[in-house]
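1st attempt posting a full record on here, be nice pls
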Amino acid sequence: MDMRTEQQQYNPYRVFSRAQWAKLRDDMPMTLAADEIAALRSMHDRLDLTEVEEIYLPLSRLLSIYVASMQRLYVAQRQFLGIEDRKMPYVIGVAGSVAVGKSTTARVLQALLARWSPRPKVDLITTDGFLFPNAVLERQGLMQKKGFPESYDLPLLLSFLSDIKAGRTPVRAPVYSHLTYDIVPNKWAEVGQPDILIVEGVNVLQTGRLPRDGKAVPVVSDFFDFSVYIDAEEPVLRDWYVKRFLALRDTAFHDPRSYFHRYAVLSDDEATATAVAIWERTNRANLEDNILPTRPRATLILKKGADHVVEEVALRRL
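the predicted structure (as tokens):
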């Protein structure tokens, strides 16, 4: 009789402790200097030489294996079909809650992957640029749900990813300003046939409702070759969000152009109460209803502790 628990029987992941995962670096070289690592770190996130060595270098090694395998498969398929096709970029999705450190992870991966031999072109796009402009969100009553799946221009994002996968160039993505908290009018970021594209966003692993007629309904993750979910417990995420809000109150919020300029004059207690209210009303709701349910769809999960250090890594079995 199989005495394994139900979770053990059906767990699609291999789970590694930090120490176990760190050993998988093997001979992957460190290509980032300490000052470069510091520049990649987001506000209140933790990133140091040890974190890169023990977490991100093993991940870089794993990705090198996945990318090389996909390239061989792609060449074999073209030969089988007898076709000449454009270069197909390898697309990596990075998902997780607000304040969990997605931007740091995405930037570290970009920096490490770009230094592989022979120096692949690695681009990074965040899905913030595909949010509807504030005027549209206000008209549709969605400003309190900014970051929820319905607040994104999904057809535009899918069109962008489809063009990327088809090897078209250049492909344009809208630009988002965290200062004005809005899309920047008439400004675009151009992506030109990268070898690897990293797509970072809270809801990039979202699925859609299955159609009754069986017609294809694409979702963002259909275009991913590999995906990473950054995970942490909800109370920890709330604490990180509050600390980041307080830091921004003392810095970016003082800029008169900031959408949150009105919060710059708040006391510590007032700012904390405001941040908690925003977290509960918007970010926690989005986490519980939309983001966390997508975690099991990731290829790899990085589980962080309260000190921002990755404590556990889960890799989906092949």
